[in-house]
Write a structure and sequence with these properties.
This protein is α/β, with parallel strands linked by helices. The protein is built from eight helices and 13 strands.
Length: about 270
Amino acid sequence: MYGFCTFFFTYLPKNQYLCTQFLIRIKMKIALIGYGKMGKMIEEIARSRGHEIVSIIDIDNQEDFESEAFASADVAIEFTSPTAAYGNYLKAFAKNVKVVSGSTGWMKEHGEDVRRMCSAEGGQTLFWASNFSIGVAIFSAVNRYLAKIMNQFPQYDVELEETHHVHKLDHPSGTAITLGEEIVAGLDRKSGWAEETTDPTLLRIDHIRRGEVPGIHTIRYDSDADCITITHDAHSRRGFALGAVLAAEYTKEHSGLLTINDMFNF
């Protein structure tokens, strides 16, 4: 086992200093649930950061959830599908293995059960994020702040568009839903979000599926006078994979239902 600490300080007025990030990395035992392109990239990054992959579970070896190797994991990183994710959480929790998951599409049906299991009484741990990219975490913070500003300017209407690869099954993306909910929370003139809507009280979210696009999210505030646009454009899945490993490192030392906002306090 090894560890190191890194401090980043920001200079503030009146000779004050703020510790903006404190990272501790300790060698971990990681299980992978889902071994597609994302799982393989997570494996590469986890190994490069000194972690041990003790178990890899995919669709053809589900029995390995019962193995000693899986039970020995400090954290399991899960990237599968909307239909498989919840069952994977249950199997990991049965072995008291903490889970980091980027699977989307399960929250509406199973969200309440997961919150209960990850309460103090339930005793389980899930770090869930619709997107683990550090850039998206920053983009999300900008989105929240911009919505707060634009609440003062009702002449601007807003819409959100997401583009992903043709293999992505759910829509809108989990990231788009998260961004949309942030916009709705910041704008008094929006009561919710919907796809393919013309209702001015709802935030419209459009989705495009094209080629092998890792992920593009665009938020557009439009008025008769001008247009304000912010976009996050992922160049590859690598940023998502690195973020998932960073989340696993964070999750090892924390418990409960965790989110990206717990790890990055913008």
